[in-house]
């Protein structure tokens, strides 16, 4: 075991997979010599050389499109899109091309491609760098969407993503890159895609979050306990697509109340899907309507305003209390 | 020194079979071996092809022309669905693929069923695809081809990535993508060619410039004098070829493939041609945007007529052979259409199975609930 930041765990996942499988290659803007703008790929170019680590031209659609070519010819590319806000540039290559190739070809082809995407707010970026655009791909059949919230999960989930036979979008919360540390095994291990994690057990209300909103939900749980003695259960989704309904529904059946928390805009977001699923599967267990504590239905705000825009423990507590006081 | 002078010098130093490629210069002169009368142009020579290979190439072009006519009829009878006619583009599609190997990879668009069938995609599957039945795009394991692309230029970066893969592994393979003149306006065209250039990918980008993107003429598509000259900007080889001259198409593609296999990078081929028919059979009327005179002008440049004249001059072709080839493909089509009409259209459950390598639980549940609902209905 070693103590690692989340970004180091991500780096470590790529390193062990590149050592294990010579078909694993990393590519993207600045990912080679420079080790990526966040240093996620630091040292990989130096260790594995220019035939395994590529500084690509500055073209998101080209990165994903070329990765599809590589992936279908036997490589396992790990492509980096520098910031989630740039993902629209390659929407067609992800949602139409990579996502559908297995479907279109009747299973003849599959695309074992991992797309790493730093995302989310709280780090004072210029505009269009902090978006949470994961729900777009929840709505794209054929891709999987994964979001870690701690170093252990980051390494294990990224290894699972790299080994997956289908395209996986791997959203990395920028806010947590260096602000969280944890024990991480040095060898390769996997955390399964599609399995949520109950990070804190409780009986009064279920808080459902992912990425940087997991520690935020934990803070809110602490606050609610202090303020009103609430025992909150906190679920870290870890995977947005496919959702782990078993864990979500099981928890809501136990607590009878739920609050979904995400940074992304509210309408049509991951929260909407979760509320719909809870309604379908567990409506009779509910004591109150499910609350959503999310970003607003605006584009991501200028950085000076982001702390007000993003969900806070106070806003999450307000959501929790709404379910209790219904 | 500008690129073309540099290229010219490179060609002079090397042994070039076809010195005309350099005369592209500003793209005003097209590479042509066989003129419209089926004669070899002065200063040119026919590619190194045996009599049998020449005959086979023509037979395939004729097959595709015959296929096209019959497919249009089947569409009108309601027996085929989506279909994009390819008559006029047979030299582009067949002579290019004839210059490649079965081990090479093809990235076609929807109008390129000629390339696909030549590469081994069965007629039956062309029909399944057209009729919207399941598995129309399930390319057989022994055919190295992607499903036909619908998104214009969406497959250009795939072709770059595949060619890049072969280069990385020093494989003796080439990736070729086919697209039209309209595709060259797309961002993915640019990104794909640039990627291929940067990584010296074993890729060939074959543009069938058939003059129209549905109804929009090339003059409204770009201000470049030629499409081929765009290669200069990418620092790759580029050539404008008479797309109705099978020999020139073959030669240009062969040279591009040879270069790619040697690690000398990708090539952009602009094949100047004309789509005789409508864009697709879904209501497009070329009369709204093309003149009869223009259509006649291109009919005079028919790629089949020219190539047949050449073969006849060498005593390699006659009416009997012509009829035999037509009959063969028509029989094959008749068998195939009857067969696919009896084949299942497919079910939602089957579609679900192919969406992921392993079905995720939510999708599995959708499938089970739907199957149960159908059974109980």
UniProtKB/TrEMBL annotation, chain A:
Domain annotation Transketolase-like pyrimidine-binding: ranges: 4-179
GO molecular function annotation: oxidoreductase activity
SMART domains: Transket_pyr
Keywords: Oxidoreductase, Pyruvate, Thiamine pyrophosphate
Membrane spanning stretches: none
Gene3D superfamilies: 3.40.50.920, 3.40.50.970
Highest rank taxon of the organism: Bacteria
Cofactor(s) in the UniProt record: thiamine diphosphate
Any Pfam family: Transket_pyr
Keyword Transferase assigned: no
Protein name: Pyruvate dehydrogenase E1 component subunit beta
Source organism of the structure: Marinithermofilum abyssi
Lineage: Bacteria, Bacillati, Bacillota, Bacilli, Bacillales
